[in-house]
Amino acid sequence: MNKVFGSAQAALQDIVSDGQTLAVGGFGLCGVPEALILALRDTGVKELTVASNNAGADGFALWELLQTRQIRRMISSYVGENAEFARQYLAGELELEFTPQGTLAERLRAGGAGIPGFYTRTGVGTLIAEGKEHHDFGGQTYILELGIVADVSLVKAWKGDTAGNLIYRKTARNFNPLVATAGRVTVAEVEHLVEVGELDPDQVHTPGIYVQRLVHNPSPRKLVEHRTVRVSQVQA
């Protein structure tokens, strides 16, 4: 099975459609499948539900799809750093399912593991718990959270081989391994593409069994979300 596609556009053209649920890796500007997001924007598909920790920042990542109104609903834990995300939500133009960050991670993991739901104490007694099943265990109240299974998952890896085995680099590991397992079809964008046998099996974070398609993007943008510098203290 040849998993390597010549472009992000080619990798997505026959697997995305209106109304789908997508899971997208990344945290802020780190570990974001930027080429795949741009290709998804260019397909013109709309009415999407997207599960992702956040929607990137102004001018980058999922902001691209918000700007073109292709996303109908977000499942996220954080709205900050993206003025368009906040504006659409507050204006009632975008549905938003707020999910605590740890719960979102576990919902993705559960979906990928074939677990339909799980109970957690996180969110009990808050707006998060409204409309959800409650159950007592050991004298404590828990709420039922459902696993997330995406029609398509988009992830970003530092290195991958042609069989789809992936290695993430440092913080860019974030949500990507969980997103990779939660998709019925997973497309990975990799900076370094190597042949089978060139990766140390002990270093692989996502086995190739979870990845159906690969795109090589050797020159991703290296953006800084917040540049902080120290004022020089020069003594006279």
Annotation keywords:
236 residues, alpha/beta, nine-stranded mixed sheet, three-stranded antiparallel sheet, 6 helices
Q: What is the CA-based Rg, rounded?
A: 19 Å
Number of helices: 6
- Structural class call reads alpha/beta
Number of strands: 12
Characterize the overall form.
Answer: globular
> Averaging pLDDT over every residue, what do you get?
94
- Biggest β-sheet description: 9 strands, mixed
Distance between the termini: 69 Å
What's the helical proportion of residues? 10-25%
Low-confidence stretches: none
Give the strand content. 25-35%
SSE order, one letter for each helix or strand? EHEHEHEHEHEEEEEHEE
What order do the helices and strands come in, and which of them pair?
Blueprint: E1 4-5, H1 8-12, E2 21-24, H2 34-43, E3 48-51, H3 63-67, E4 71-76, H4 83-90, E5 95-98, H5 101-113, E6 117-120, E7 134-137, E8 140-146, E9 150-161, E10 166-167, H6 176-182, E11 183-194, E12 213-216
